[in-house]
Amino acid sequence: MRAITGIWRWRHNPLRRPTDRLEAWVALAAALLIAVGATTVGRLTGQAADEALQQAVRTQHQQRHLVWATVDRLVSRAPLDPDPETSSQRDAHRRAIARWTAWDHSEHLGQISTPRPVDPGDHLRIWTDGHGRVVPRPMDMSTARTHAVLAGLGSAAAIGGLVEGGRRLIVWRLMVRRFRRWDQAWERAGQDWGRADAGG
């Protein structure tokens, strides 16, 4: 809005310099690029990220399976970090050796991380791939959508930042040019500008 009022204000002003008008046009162009360009890029990026992530979610849900595992023995009952002040909730998880039957009916024995304290003989649900290897839980649709929205917002902010950075660079160059012209005008006016006996 300031860009539009700036152009209108300088339209017939006798003190208007060419750089003033150019600066107002640059501000208007930057505002339009941010309003239209950045939002369009953000929307397109978000849509592309959403499609890719939703496909990844579908693939993960097809390839990962929830199976029952039976705890055979505990690896350690102590947190991974012995200092209780620095140990995180993640470190408090226990490690256990467990047995499970994979989706392809193969038997497996391996180390797993348990979300709660367990004892030998306890049963847990774990995620495995088609070959019975333990894998992370698949991403859900809402998490994928959140990541897509963040990608769109991030790309829109990046484009907006680039446009604003370009506008500031152009305005800075205009100011440098303006100051050079002022210096040249003062040099042409001579050293005795403003003295009472100048020109007399």
Walk me through the structure.
- There is one protein chain.
- The chain has 200 residues and is α+β, with helices and mostly antiparallel strands.
- The protein contains 3 helices and 4 strands, in the order ααββββα.
- The protein has helices spanning 2-10, 18-63, 141-189; strands at 65-76, 94-101, 107-114, 123-128.
- Strands 3-2-1-4 form a 4-stranded antiparallel beta sheet.
- α2 runs antiparallel to α3 (141-189).
- It starts with a helix and ends in an 11-residue tail after the last helix.
- The model is unreliable at 86-92 (pLDDT under 50).
Strand content: 15-25%
Helix content: 40-55%
Can you list the strand order of the major beta sheet?
A: 3-2-1-4
- Contiguous uncertain segments of 5+ residues: 86-92
Helices and strands, in order, run as HHEEEEH
